[in-house]
Amino acid sequence: MERTTSTPAHSPHRTPARTPRRAAKPWLAAAVVATLSLPVLAAPAGAAGPGGGHGPGPGAGTTACAYGYTSDATVWFGAGADSGVTNHETRAGCTVMDEIMAGAPFRTHGQFVRTVTSVTKDLVRERVLTGGERRDILRAAAASKVGKPHPVTGKRAVDLSAIGLVGYTVRATMPTDAEGTLAALAGCGFQNIEPSGSAGNFYGYTAAELAPLTDEAGIEVPSLGVSLSNLQNDVDLVAAEAHAIGAKYVRISGSGSWTLADYSRTAAILNEAGEALSAEGIRVAYHNHGYEFETEEDGVAGYDVLVRETNPAFVTMELDVYWAASTETAATDLFARYPGRFELLHLKDIAEDGSFADVGAGTIDFAEIFAAAPLAGVRYGFTENDQPSPDGVTSACTSLGYLAELRY
C-alpha cells in the first residue's frame, strides 16, 4: 500500500549459503485448484515435539515448529536489519527465527533486544550459533525498528509518488478505452498503476502493448498482477513482461480451498520463482484475501505459513488491508508480528456493513497504517475498490483525494 516519506528504500537482502531445508513439513492431503497441482506426500516419520529450549513460536502446531521460519533464509528483522547469518535449525527442531520471534509482537525495542540477547546466548551454549554469528544477530536486532513506537503525529503528508491504483478498479473501461482511462487517472494525480491479469494478457494487452499507453499518460507500473501458473510454468515470460513495462514486482493470489499443506507448497513455489526472478531485478509478492487468515490448524493460519516459509531475500507480501480487516486482522498487528515483510499494500477501506468503501470513507485507520509503514518496510501502496461507484475512475480519484489530504 502506501509509503511514508520516511520509509527507507529497499536494499537487497544477502542470500545465505544453501543449507539443507528443515525436515519435511507434515503434508496434508491437498485440496487443489486448477492452477496448482500439488502432490500428496506422506507425513514425515518420527517428527518429534519440541524438547525444551525456547519452544516454537505462537501457534506452531504439535510437530516441532511445523510451518515455522524457513532455514533457507537469514536471521532478518526488516529493512536494514539483515544479520547475514543463516537461520540455522536449533536442537529443539525449530530455527533461530522461530525461537526469537516466539515473543512477537514486542512491546518495546528494549524487550526485543533483550529477547534476542537471551535466545542467542543459549544458542551459542548449545553450539547452534558461533560467537561471531551472535554478534551479527545482535547488531541486526539493535538496528531494527522492531518494538519502536510509530505514533500518529498528524504532521506528515503521504508521499503520493509512492501511491498507485490497482487496475482491477478500472477493469470495466481499460479493455475498451485504456488511453482515456489512464489519462483520467493521471489527471487526478495518479503516478502509478498495478495492472491485474496474467502474463501476456492485461485487459487484452501484453505488457509491451500497454507500456506505450502508460508512458503517454505519465504513469509508471511498479508491479504486475500475474497468475500462480505463470510463476510455475513460465518464469521467463513473467520476466519479459515485467521488463517490457518497467515493473520491479510481480504478485499472485491464492485460493480459498487450500489447506496449510497447499500454502506450504505455494511458499516453496514463491521461493523458487523469486530466486530466479531476483537475477532479473524482480521481486515476487503474495496478495491476500481473507481466507489466508481463516484457514487454520493448531493456531497456525495459512498466512503465517506464507510469511514464515518464504525467504525475504526473494519474496515479499502485498497486504490487502480490506481483506485482512474483514477477518478482524489489523494491518498494524501484522506489521508488528512480521516486521519488514510488507513492501506492497492494497489500500482498500471497509464499510460498517463489511462492504467495499473508497479509502477514507470506511472504518480503517489509514493514519496508523502510514505511521507504521517504516516497520512494515512499505515501498508502494495501491488504492483499490472491488465494487467502485459510480465508476472506477471516480472511485479511484476520490480515494487518492483523501490520501492527498491525510496527515498522519
Strand content: 5-15%
Helical amount among residues, as a percent range? 25-40%
- Please state the second-level CATH architecture of the domain at 160-405: Alpha-Beta Barrel
Give a quick account of the main beta sheet: strands, pairing sense, barrel closure. 8 strands, parallel
Structural class by sheet pairing and helices: alpha/beta
Shape: globular
Strand order of the largest sheet: 4-3-14-11-10-7-6-5
Can you count the helices?
Answer: 15
Q: CATH homologous superfamily of the domain at 160-405 - what is it?
A: Divalent-metal-dependent TIM barrel enzymes
The count of DSSP E runs of length 2 or more, i.e. the number of strands, is: 14
Question: C-alpha Rg, in Å?
Answer: 21 Å
CATH class of the domain at 160-405: Alpha Beta
Flag low-confidence runs.
1-62
- Average of pLDDT: 87
**Quaternary structure state of the chains depicted:** single chain
- Span between termini: 15 Å
Main attributes?
35% helix; alpha/beta; 14 strands; two-stranded antiparallel sheet; 408 residues; 8-stranded parallel sheet; isomerase; disordered N terminus; globular; TIM Barrel
Q: How would you sum up this structure in a few lines?
A:
This protein has 15 helices and 14 strands. The protein is an alpha/beta fold and 408 residues long. The chain has a domain at 160-405: Divalent-metal-dependent TIM barrel enzymes (TIM Barrel).
